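Q: Second attempt. The first request was missing the SMILES, so the protein and SKM are both included now.
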Amino acid sequence: MQTRNYILIGPMGAGKSTIGRLLAKELALPFKDSDKEIEERTGASIPLIFDVEGEAGFRDREQAVIAELCGQQGLVLATGGGAVLRAENRQAMRQGAVVIYLHASVEHQLARTARDRNRPLLQTENPEQVLTALLALRDPLYREIATLIIETDTRPPRMVVQEIMQFLSTYNSR
Ligand SMILES: Nc1ncnc2c1ncn2[C@@H]1O[C@H](COP(=O)(O)OP(=O)(O)OP(=O)(O)O)[C@@H](O)[C@H]1O
Ligand SMILES: O=C(O)C1=C[C@@H](O)[C@@H](O)[C@H](O)C1
Ligand SMILES: [Mg+2]
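A: Got both inputs this time. The predicted holo structure:
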């Protein structure tokens, strides 16, 4: 049962990194964060990678990391908000994994990302407009590969984890 991967997808500020870490503790599985993994392997921050290589360069690095981590077993993996953009990533992520879409409204995404300068796509005059456009484009892609969708606007991280665990208790015993 514990050999499958548990993959968190969803927009910036949905809580993938925060909830992924807590969920990994609950499941007693190793936790990986594709954004962190990219930074460690590149030896550069995400903003610097975007500056030097552009978003396309970042997406190439992201694809390589996702392919490798999805090839492993028994991980909890928090992905970046744009990891679903490439069909190759969607295919790799849905392969034998439980894919959990953490949903958050633009209002909550905005509040949760406001003070963090580490997200290059939001360093603009109007982050609300950017988040709205990104969610419209990506929401169908998140839904396409989701095993489970959880609303995070009204639930603190621990409650989100509890809900995931409740779902898994029936899903894993099928
Ligand atoms: N359910 C929640 N309720 C309130 N605050 C939350 C919730 N989930 C996460 N947060 C807070 O929102 C901020 C962003 O969370 P986090 O970094 O986990 O998002 P993310 O989905 O990993 O974003 P990214 O796609 O940019 O990596 C953090 O400060 C975190 O504490
Ligand atoms: O939503 C996105 O496209 C991104 C989200 C972050 O997790 C990082 O992967 C990066 O800042 C891009
Ligand atoms: Mg994250």
